[in-house]
Design brief:
With about 270 residues, the protein is an alpha/beta fold. It is built from eight helices and eight strands, in the order H-E-E-E-H-E-H-E-H-E-H-H-E-H-E-H. It has a single domain, classed as 3-Layer(aba) Sandwich (Rossmann fold). Helix content is about 30%, strand content about 15%. An eight-stranded mixed beta sheet has the order 1-2-4-3-5-6-7-8. The longest helix is centred in the last third of the chain and has 19 residues. The protein starts with a helix and ends with a helix.
Length: about 270
């Protein structure tokens, strides 16, 4: 399944996970349970996507000692009747609150594109409470200190569709179907509004390692913009460049999952 359609698919078998901060189990999905995990990776979807975007990533780690759960943002799939959250800081606040009760294992955070920024903001909140973050993994997103004048959310439907097609290719042509466009365009526009208006506030240096994954032909993130994540941590930063565009992750999911596994389960130096 392609990059764009995987984001909206409801085919994956998913289990709602309940915790004190999320008693109804609306925020987190687990696709492949792990018997005795050593670390938990919380995954944050890209703009317009749902938790099922991480099904393949979860599958790639299913035999490792890594427990993978994916965030389900409001306004999509089974949460489609809920209001969108059009502010990254507000969304991070709500996810952080819902994480209460998930600290039985060390936490790491993984996000692609918009999800990388949300993961970064959640990591800031976790560290402010005094809890450690085992690692932040960011994919397909420039550092928070780097901005561009983006206004996709202000355009008409045709311009939003054109932007998604530019990034996702043939997969995104499903939006040319009027019924699918009616379903999906509000989600996309809301997420574009959130990420394009985001500006990093205050001191923004984490105390955990950051791993950065980027595509060498990503039109939204240059290698230099990806490398600028080094300025957002006092710990080690690794930058891995892969062949591909904005959704390079889908072509290298096994390799990237392996790097995540190795960096989270390796014994301390």
């Amino acid at each position: 399944m392609g990059a764009f359609m995987a984001a909206f698919s409801g085919e994956a078998v998913e289990v709602r996970e309940r915790a004190p901060g999320d008693p109804d189990g609306v925020w987190f999905r687990r696709f492949h349970p792990v018997g005795r995990g050593r670390v938990r990776v919380v995954c944050f979807p890209h703009a317009g996507a749902s938790a099922t975007a991480y099904f393949a990533f979860s599958a790639a780690l299913a035999d490792a000692e890594v427990d993978v759960v994916a965030v389900q943002y409001p306004g999509r799939q089974d949460r489609r009747r809920e209001a969108f959250v059009e502010d990254i800081s507000a969304l991070a606040d709500r996810v952080h609150e819902a994480l209460d009760g998930w600290t039985d294992l060390p936490l790491a955070l993984f996000g692609h594109s918009m999800g990388a920024t949300v993961a970064f903001e959640v990591a800031r909140r976790v560290e402010r409470t005094g809890a450690p973050v085992r690692g932040l993994f960011v994919s397909g997103r420039r550092a928070p200190s780097r901005t561009r004048p983006e206004r996709v959310h202000l355009g008409d439907d045709a311009s939003v569709i054109a932007e998604v097609e530019r990034l996702s290719g043939a997969d995104a042509r499903v939006l040319r179907d009027p019924e699918m466009a009616e379903l999906l365009l509000p989600v996309l526009r809301s997420d574009y509004r959130a990420i394009e208006r985001y500006r990093c506030a205050g001191p923004a240096r984490l105390g955990c390692p950051i791993s950065v994954f980027t595509g060498d032909a990503d039109p939204l993130t240059s290698v230099d913009e990806a490398d600028a994540w080094r300025g957002h941590t006092s710990e080690r930063t690794d930058v891995d460049v892969f062949p591909g565009g904005h959704f390079f992750l889908n072509d290298h999911v096994d390799r990237i999952a392996g790097l995540v596994r190795d960096r989270l389960t390796a014994p301390p130096a």
